[in-house]
Structure formats: structure tokens, C-alpha cells
Amino acid sequence: MSAEQQAREEQLIERVTASFDGTPDPRLKEIMRALTRHLHAFVRDVRLTEAEWQQAIAFLTATGHLTDDRRQEFILLSDVLGASMQTVTVNNEAYRDATEATVFGPFFVEGSPAIEHGGDIAGGAPGEPCWVEGVVTDTDGKPVPGARIEVWEADDDGFYDVQYGDDRVAARGHLHTGADGAYRFWAIVPTPYPIPHDGPVGKLLDATGRSPMRASHLHFMVEAAGLRTLVTHIFVRGDELLDRDSVFGVRDSLVKDFERQAPGTPTPDGRDLGDRPWTRVRFDIVLAPETRFG
Ligand code: BEZ
Ligand code: FE
Predict the structure, then answer these.
(1) Alpha carbon of 247 to ligand 1 centroid (Å)
(2) Tag placement on the chain: N or C end, fewer CB within 10 Å?
(3) Would you say the CB of residue 190 lies under 6 angstroms from ligand 1?
(4) Which CATH architecture best describes the domain 79-292?
């Protein structure tokens, strides 16, 4: 590239960056200046053609057209680019042995049913019964009583209740830890499912030879006074999708042993499952302090 060409490109970056100098909000100023630097660096790095730029605009336009109250194609785009997971990672700083966070996803619903300890969140969702238990502690190992645990998952057919569009409530619920910080409930064994892939994001995955599948997982959100809210999932050890989860949500520390029990094996709470097999998993949760640490 000639010195003249390089100078023209660099001058443009200077001018655009400087255009934000008068931004009253210092954080917005920092973000817009950095966005300018990175966006221009990208355009220059790949020597983006005008046709490619138009294609990108058409892609974003289609993404916007598909987005409404029920379908958020932009979040899906952020998810498959790993931007959602990177934002989660930046904002849930590693702290001692605190449990790692992962993506929230679009299928959490406020107002899930309350369940008792040992209750069943399945609510009629098809799937193999799965006993889930653990204890919530802080990073000093002290049990956290009264922590609110929200759980939600897809059914055996790979769908969340809200995807059926018939107002059913299934495979979700909430409970609180006891005085000893412990919790236990019945769920169903998680199964893999595809993220919605009938829109522009699906086309992008197709064009890049990527799969829309998510590794099997069970979502958790854990809240307790004075402690950092944890949004995470647990994954199934041995799942072949663990290393190619479409939204990069898998962390090694979140992969758990789901231990299959032969039909007739006594259940922890005496529930009679007849001749059905069942599974059990333990997930001990460590919550970081709420305050920022340096
Ligand atoms: C989910 O785990 O529910 C999810 C996360 C990101 C995109 C789609 C679904
Ligand atoms: Fe999910």
C-alpha cells in the first residue's frame, strides 16, 4: 500500500474518532472512540469490498426485520459470535472458587412455579427423571440459606415450554435453599437442541459450516442477598456437542457427571418410578461476593 493510501485511511480514523471528543458522557465517549478504532481496523484488515459492505447491511436489515417481542435475532447473532459469552465472562470476573457463569439464553420466564424440596419441575414435560442436588455456599465455604434457585430446561423433544405457543408451563421452577444451604429437586435429563435457525443467523451458520446445536444443559439462576447473582448451566459429561456448542457456553467446570441408574434402583426420596431408569447429578454452587473486587 502506498504511503499516500495509508495516510488517507489513518486520517479518516483520526477524524471520526475526534468527532466524539465533545461527547458529554465519558463512558459513551470511550465506547464510541474504541468502536471506531476497531471497526475501521476490521474494514482495513479484510480490505472490505463495497459489495461485501452492502451484503452486511442486507444481513443486519434482515436480522432487524425478524426481531420482535418474541424473537430476538440480534441476541442470537451476538450468541453465535461469542459476544454474549464474552460479555458474561468480562462481567463475572473469576473470584476464588466461585462457580462460573454462562449465557442466559432467551427462554427464561418470570413467574415460574414454586416447588418444594424434592419436588418435580417437569410439569408433564417428556424426559427421563433426573434427581438434581447440591449445596449453595459462599467463597468461604459457608452455606447460604434461603438462596433462590431458578431452573429451566428443554424437554426430551428439544423444546422449551414457551416454544409450543400454547401457554403450557413445564420444565421450569424455583425453590430456596434450606438452613444448611442444600437443595434437591427432580428434573428431566437434558437433551441437545438447536437454537432457532430459520432466519439470517441460521443462514450464517449454514454458510460457515457450523451447527445450530447446543450441548445438553440445565439452566440455573441463583440469587442471594449480598452475593453476586449467578446465571449458569450444567452440562452432561460425555455429550459429543461439548466442544462445539453453537453459543460457546460450555466451561469445563460446568460439565457434570449425570449418573444413570438402572430401573428399580431406589430413588433418594423414595419416589416410585416403576421400571423406568433414572439419572442423578450433583451440582454444588459457590457464589462470589456482590461487591467488585480488584
Ligand atoms: C439457551 O440456552 O436457552 C440458548 C442460549 C443462546 C441462544 C439460544 C438458546
Ligand atoms: Fe437452553
Answers:
(1) 7
(2) C
(3) no
(4) Sandwich (2.60)
